[in-house]
Amino acid sequence: MHGKGIVALVGLLLAATVLAGTSENVLPDGTIPGEVAREYITPPESAFADTDVTYVDITGGTSNNAWPWATSFGNSMRFQMMYLPSEIGRAGLITEFGFMSGNQYQREFYNVTIKMVHTNITAVTTDLNSNYGGNTPDTVFFATSKLVGSGVAGNWDLFTLDNGFMYNGTDNLLVEIVWNGAGSGTSITSRYMSMTPVRRTWVWDWQGNVGVSADASRYNARLGFTDELDDVGVSHIVVPEAIADTGATVTPACSVYNYGTTTVSYDVRTSIGADYNETATVTDHAPGERLFVTFPDWTPAALGSFNVTCSTELTDDADNDNDAETGTVFVRKLDVGVQSLQIPSGMYMPGENITPTATWRNHGNTAVDFEAWVILNDPTDAEAYREKVDVTGLDPGGSMQVGFPSFQLNVPGAWTVRCSTGLAGDVDPANDVLDEGFTVGAVDAGIVAILSPGTFVDTGATVVPSARIRNNSDYAMSFDAWFIISDESDAELYRHSAAVAGLAGGETRDVAWAESWPGPHPEGPYTARCSLAVSDENPANNQLERAFTVGARPPWDEGWVEVAPIPAQAGNRRDMPHRGAWLAIGPDPGGATAIYATKGNKLQN
């Protein structure tokens, strides 16, 4: 049987289950991907110490070779050697392995790994991975530092294996030695002979897959078999892990390993604190096999740290030191909620910038990282704003005020704001969300009239532009007002702004611009335009324009303007008024107000 690849039929107790492990690639450092590190399944060195070992010696070689313990071509190596079932002559649990020393030297090697695997290949090739024959090797030994060499030529340099390998007696046995790094010293040699088929390959790279060569060198080897040993143990507590969430459903589990040489059945027990104590029955657990054991579900309720113990209960177990594994589990409560909203709240003006701000509180018993969210919906219920802030390390019982990027409110009406919490495993969704409302008021500012310039401007006049502006809403407003004067070609002759600050709701204000428009001005038609730099409900009244005329006038007093020239009558001269001219206001024949004028100088009309 292949060590870790066995699938066993396992009994059930109290709804507990036991599953066989799966074979996976084994890395040179002894770690199985997706499973626990090799050191978790390593029994104590004394596991096989008190048992009888039967040795099988494969000998005949008298030549010496430094592979695999030489550094002539590199400081790491991957080496393979194959032995035939006819040379081994039996099945059983291999607990010791070694080569025969060819010299008396010893030397320190680092990161030493020995793996064994059943293979059906007939000859070793330089494709080291293919030499496994499609099987997965077992890591049977690993040491970060190992003194290699027996110290006496002709003696066995034996390794006591961490994990026994259950050899089936029918397949070829491939032994792989990997090391990475070595201390200074003389190369260690081993005895060998040439014997078909091709047995050996190597590469000067502990991670290499293609060998330098492959040949028929067969090394003298000693295999120690341990018989009739009952020894099982817990290699690793798998579940619960270091942390469990309150209220969650947890299925306790552990990994058990048969370190012995016999197939056995036994109970496994797991306890968690004082409130959980359950067993599962493992049946027909084969030697060298690791099994995954699960127990009835556990629902953590109490908070805090609790001791966890998983242990095997095999009668007459040969080594009780590896029967149990212990650990601790911290039962945590994950609960972060929105405590209060600071901004936005109440009433805002259109165009106002806000910095959304809210406070979150950690109601749990452990520091947490979480996502804080703020979402704003406008009066049409369309999402106008969505921002997230990552909060780290909020302590239990602590509160934190979180600020978000600023946002400009432009749409008047009733808005909604939602603050929410993003925390996986949060046990109280009810406090994760806070919904509130606020209002953006409607505003309207407008130009009532352009006060200056009037409809006529003297060519030499200095004009101080002014306009009458009104706030038609209920909220105070501040904005800029602009005034532009252009000629009949639309060329701008004047452009300036005036700040309108704190215009109260319902207030009308006459605004004069600080910059005047000095004369002289060419005669002709002009246009005056006034506009407001504001976003409000009624853009139509935010600008106003009117035409005016610049002309030369007689030297009459300030304030007099020409309404119309005195009309000529038939038979009279069309000249200017003379001495004795006068004006009078009175009704015309139809009763409307009229201006009556005479030209004087004895002119009759």
From TrEMBL:
Alphabetically ordered keywords of this record: Signal
Lineage top rank: taxon: Bacteria
Keyword Signal recorded: yes
Signal sequence range: 1-20
Protein name as annotated: CARDB domain-containing protein
Source organism (scientific name): candidate division WOR-3 bacterium
